[in-house]
Write a structure and sequence with these properties.
7 strands; binds NADP nicotinamide-adenine-dinucleotide phosphate; 7-stranded parallel sheet; globular
Length: 288
């Protein structure tokens, strides 16, 4: 799918100052496309926008909002993008658990669940509502909704996160059918692990690409796949686990449960150590 129709438009990327979102913003800018960057931290937005403008000679606009907040932020976003033609919307912003945990044991579970739903579910829905009318009028537009492989694989101990991503998957699937007759392409992206703050993977490995490599891999699937794991290794792994899950669900559950339990134990040990060090007056800042 070619994006030349977007040349004089703006493309909106949420969660655009880091990780996968920043990589999408840079990839679009590298094709000469103007970008609206929406994220939380104003200083990071200003820095990333300045870097993108000077490197790719495109226009940028920044909007600082916290997607964990209530519905009122969409009035502001609506005002900020009023008058702009939006060619591409990338709903990338998302948050996850600090560490895998049993539902009732998640710290501040009640507030956390509301923030998670606002950030991962409400943002995708509201941003689509904001741009779809103008895309329909123009009979052209592309929306990418970033879900996660956890949407379709068993993910115990991250239940709330994976369920928000399952919403994104189903929402995208039906919305794509609803708007295809109007010339709008809607694709769901289902990444496995990618190097980022959220994943806590700091170095790339065979199955853990850098955001830039993930995004470049995914962009090759535009218009070809309704739902895409993007990166080729993730596609193979997702295909393998999904098939295995239909043949032997218990194997997949055992693998994910064991992995996530291990991560949980390590996180709890680290938190316990930090608590003990704080009680003993030891500065833990450099360990974080
Ligand atoms: N990385 C993975 O392994 C992986 C795997 C599967 C799916 N995903 C999905 O991919 C998407 C991007 O993840 P990532 O790993 O690239 O994350 P990341 O590196 O942590 O970056 C998140 C971006 O979103 C912004 N953001 C976070 N919370 C926000 C909030 N409440 N309001 C506004 N902006 C906020 C951050 O801004 P600040 O820098 O200002 O905080 C940052 O720009 C998410 O939807 C995630 O669920 C990631």
């Amino acid at each position: 799918m070619t994006l030349t129709f977007c040349l004089f438009f703006f493309q909106v990327v949420t969660g655009a100052t880091d990780g996968i979102g920043r990589a999408y913003a840079e990839e679009l800018a590298s094709h000469g496309l103007n970008i609206v960057l929406i994220s939380r931290s104003p200083y990071k937005l200003q820095n990333v926008a300045a870097e993108i403008e000077s490197q790719y000679k495109v226009k940028t606009k920044i909007i600082d909002v916290d997607f964990t907040s209530g519905i009122e932020i969409y009035d502001r976003i609506k005002k900020e993008i009023e008058g702009l033609e939006i060619g591409v919307l990338i709903n990338n912003v998302g948050m996850s658990y600090a560490y895998p945990e049993y539902l009732a044991e998640v710290p501040n579970a009640t507030e956390f669940s509301q923030s998670l739903i606002n950030c991962n579910v409400v943002s995708v829905t509201q941003m689509c509502i904001l741009v779809l009318r103008q895309m329909v009028e123009r009979k052209k537009g592309l929306i990418l909704n970033v879900s996660s492989a956890s949407a379709v694989l068993p993910t115990p101990l991250m239940t709330m996160y994976s369920s928000t991503k399952a919403y994104v998957y189903k929402f995208s699937e039906d919305l794509a059918l609803e708007y295809a007759p109007f010339g709008i392409t809607i694709q769901c992206v289902l990444p496995g692990f990618v190097v980022s703050k959220m994943s806590r993977y700091k170095k790339p490995a065979f199955r853990i690409p850098l955001p830039r490599d993930f995004v470049r891999g995914h962009m090759r699937t535009l218009g070809l796949e309704f739902a895409s794991a993007g990166f080729w290794v993730h596609k193979i792994l997702l295909g393998y686990y999904t098939k295995l899950n239909t043949v032997s669900p218990s194997t997949v559950v055992n693998v994910t449960f064991t992995n996530l339990s291990g991560t949980r134990q390590r996180a709890l040990r680290r938190l316990q150590m930090q608590r003990e060090q704080q009680e003993n007056g030891i500065d833990t800042a450099k360990d974080k």
